[in-house]
Amino acid sequence: MASQSQKRMKGISVTRPLIYGNIANPLTGKKAAESDHTHKWTVCVRGVNGEDVSYFIKKVQFRLHETYSNPLRTIEQPPFEVNETGWGEFEINIKIYFHPLAGEKPVQVYHHLRLHPYEDDGSGQPWPKNRPVVSYNYDEIVFNEPTEAFYQILSENNGLTSTLPFKKSTKESAHPFSVQTEQEELERLDGAQREVNSQIERLKERMAQAEEELNALKREQAV
């Protein structure tokens, strides 16, 4: 029989938003000259506006490319992030573990480490040299029928807005996911869609012209 604290709250779901992803900056000066690495980057899991998520997340595992020393990095206290340098982009496996009172299995997500800006960000302007490349994903963790003990923890931290009181993160990883970031991504996608539509229209015009020329040739041959 489950203890009182492990009993499930029937018919109740609790959602907690978070972001995961990376921010990257080109290496410059002496650091760039001493290594074949081209960028410094930070991959992280955090609250949408820097909220403390450690009340429901126990630890986060980041599996990096196998060429890195100790590619499986386990972070057991906030900030849940890994700081590294490198030259290539690759997929990072992120596994999020919850506190034992949750009685929940870990959640696994994947993130493609992005070091370089998109070739065309929709603005028509070259990417500023000192501007970081930001690639964050928004997600929501849904706890269906949480245990009574875990539900109490979630309820006590409902609407928490204070930032992390822990050690400071690096300046580069302090950029929060924001409406502006989301809008920039939407504008880039919209620009890409317009370009695709334009190319489709040009292709249709060429096909129509080629068909007309073919029909004209057939008419000439029929005479």
Automatic annotation (TrEMBL):
Q: Where is the YEATS domain?
A: 8-157
Matches recorded under Pfam families? YEATS
Q: Which PROSITE patterns match?
A: YEATS
Q: Which UniProt keywords apply?
A: Coiled coil, Nucleus, Transcription, Transcription regulation, Transferase
Q: What is its main location?
A: nucleus
**A single GO cellular-component term on record:** chromatin
Q: What is this protein called?
A: Protein AF-9 homolog
Location comes to:
Nucleus
Write out the GO biological process terms.
regulation of DNA-templated transcription
Coiled coil where? 179-220
User: Which GO-annotated molecular functions does the record name?
Assistant: transferase activity
